[in-house]
Amino acid sequence: MRDARRRREIRDYYLGISADEITSYLTPASFDLWESVARYRRELGIGARWLEVGGGVGDLAATALERGYDVMMTDVQSELLEAAAARHPRLRGRLQRSDVFDARDVAALAARGPFSIVAALGAVLNHARDQRELALGFGHLVTLAAPGSLLIVDLMLSEMFPGHPASIWADILHVLPGFADLARLTRSWELDVLETHSLYHRYPPTPTYHAEFDERLLRLFLHKREAGRPAPVRASRRARPGSRRPGPSPSRDPGGARRATRRRPRA
């Protein structure tokens, strides 16, 4: 019953707002997603097989395809996959319904892999039913990634919200892990943290949530090591000349350039 309610909440929310609000595309003011991906591909020899989990209406996947990546995109909602195919006809044949928390769905998806880049943007994992399921979904992302691959994952963390809550409800339930939970996950899967960014956007009230919602996410670029290879040695980005830039904020986020992370968690 709880799972059926969870799916119904996701469906009703994402089908009830405009496509522009659930776009998978983001270029925050402080960094460029594609620039970071290209840099790690050069530095680490990463391939072009791109998997986006929870891609919604497909804007990010379509952009990846235009940039020459071999794209596969999933979403838990068939209606959103249909919208993605209509919005981006070139994605047809590259879409698959899959729930990142379902082991059978993930096994079926893995048969089409392995993937060089695995992206789960917009708090996909935060829509787990509890912390255990969130850790399961994180592990599924890692297993879908080939050795030596790049993972790009957004997470809403407890410490990013006043009072450090274990969960937040705003249209949909968001389960919030803490920094310690994140550290345990990255250590247990032997992932190297290459780069992080703090993302922020304020959303207006909705029919089911009668207040503004300040969404805060941490974007992580993670490297899945190849067996037997040591962690890459990287210079601090803080030491690079001209690298200091102001972070994103509601006043600095240019219109049309935001990733409507209001596509909040999607399995």
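The above is record 1. Record 2 follows with the same two-line structure.
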Amino acid sequence: MTTDGRLMTNTRPTPGHAVMSAMLRSRRGMVLSSFAGSMVLLASILVLMEGERTPKVGGRSLAPMAVTSSGVPLEAITTPPAGLDDQRWTRIVVHHSRSRHGDAAKLARQHQDMGLASLGYHFVIGNGRGMADGELHVAERWLRQQPGAHVAGPNSLAYNRDSIGVCLVGDGRQESFGRGQIDRLVATVATLAQTLDIPSSQILLHQDIVGVDDPGPLFPRERFYQRLAEAGVR
């Protein structure tokens, strides 16, 4: 006991304490090293999936173009500001957002949280909950003619380089898609296919490429392809 009445403690480390401290330091170093390696690997995968980073103007992304369902001017699709890169695009891939409501801004935030610079799709079509039913959002990746970041799986790099990503807001695992939304999808995909000479065999659902329910079992597959054929897509 000290002169002021406090108990003295033995601060000299025992052999057991020294061994335990060494083990903890070693384990901590292994954990940190493993974590750092995992983060480097994840970042590398995201960069590869995204391809070219979205250019910035004045520190902000250029605002994407939103066109209402009352009528989409074809030039918004066929003559983007960057000029149509008709040598790049050979496929179209249809997705759903896996959520009953949402909009392009919400999807963009989700993709940015995953490490992407911007929305990974080229087009988003609303379902009346967050965006008007059939509202078409033309994303900056299309305006700039940049590769997408929307296809998963072992062949994702190839698909993301040359495929156009079209996302339907909604969850095709739980509910059907609206009429206005499907009408806009058919019109958009048919316009792209005819402009870029993309055959119907290269108009794909994401679930045709990789084992995911996207756009889900409630997506009207047969009617979709039938309507594309009626629109002149072969």
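Confidence is low (pLDDT under 50) at residues 1-65, 67-71.
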